[in-house]
Amino acid sequence: MPVPVLLVTGFLGAGKTTVVNHLLAHAEGRRIAAVVNDFGAINIDAELIAGASDGVVSLANGCICCSLEGDLLRTLSTLLRRDPKPEYIVIETSGVADPADIVRNLMDPVILREAPLETVLCVMDATVPPAALDDALQRSQLRVADIVALSKLDLADEGAGVRMRAAIRALRVPAVVVEANHGEIPSALLFPATADRAPALREPGPKRPSEERFETLSWSSDKPVSLPRLQQAINRLAPKLARAKGLFESIEQPGRMMVFQFAAGRATLVPGDTPAPGVPRSRIVFIAELGVLSKAELDGIMEACIAAA
């Protein structure tokens, strides 16, 4: 029986992981395999979804989560050989990936027969101005979408959703536009009612030369950080950052990890699990435009977060 694929795309910090988290937490009896392709040396996304840093993690509701290490088609082949094999596969792309290239790979006749691409979901941050859609990468992400989910409407000003819908319509994007409060999207929109329904035929367009726009800088420490000093560091780094995310233990709350996220100029902290043995107490990935932030500058700013003994 073919296993339908849901491809989740969207720009850095749009809320893709929140959507995948919600799908896994509300599987409603479906066996879902989530494939996470993080942008960076530290696979923070996999940790946020499954509480593990690598490999395949089995969840209590029958779902699994695995990190994408290497070739996507090889990863799909591994998932399809599992017993029992998943009923659905969700692929979360990197925020700087052009989904047209991934769609083109999934149109391979062998993959199409075993794991047909059923739906492409593009998550859009409603707090960003509509002018953000002038970005070529964001337009590419919209262009292949069947469904566009507007996220973070609770953080946006009144009318932001209407303005974003109008901007999407102006681009003549044929997708259905829905609201995704806290990552919640009706499952009937994402998963087929019957497994034998024929997948949509797609034309991803001509292959375009890739343009490296972003780079990842990772910082880690075996020591806990000072929360006030971390706030000062993020304030200094914010003008140069496209995205940041990570886990850390603070001096103020020892024995408890904090989950840190920075996107669209906003930083958030939520409590995490207890520190895992054998891993650094602080691990943060920073994503910036090429050449904007040096490793030396980042290390100097972040090392100041560690209080003197």
* Domain unit count: 2
Tell me the major beta sheet. Answer: 8 strands, mixed
Discrete helix count: 10
Low-confidence stretches: 194-198
CATH superfamily of the largest domain: P-loop containing nucleotide triphosphate hydrolases
- CATH class label of the largest domain: Alpha Beta
CATH architecture classification name of the largest domain? 3-Layer(aba) Sandwich
Q: Give the N-terminus to C-terminus distance in angstroms.
A: 60 Å
Which structural class do you get from the secondary structure elements? alpha/beta
List the helices and strands in order.
Answer: EHEHEEHEHHEHEHEHEHEEEEH
Molecular shape: globular
User: What share of the residues lie within helices?
Assistant: 25-40%
Explain how this protein is built.
The chain is of the alpha/beta class and 309 residues long. The chain has two domains: 5-190, P-loop containing nucleotide triphosphate hydrolases (Rossmann fold), CATH 3.40.50.300; 214-303, Hypothetical Protein Yjia, Chain: A,domain 2, CATH 3.30.1220. It has helices spanning 16-25, 44-50, 72-80, 99-106, 109-114, 136-143, 160-170, 187-190, 227-237, 295-303, and strands at residues 5-10, 32-36, 56-58, 64-67, 88-92, 117-125, 147-151, 176-179, 214-221, 243-249, 257-263, 266-271, 282-289. The radius of gyration is 20 Å and the shape is globular. Residues 194-198 have low confidence and may be disordered.
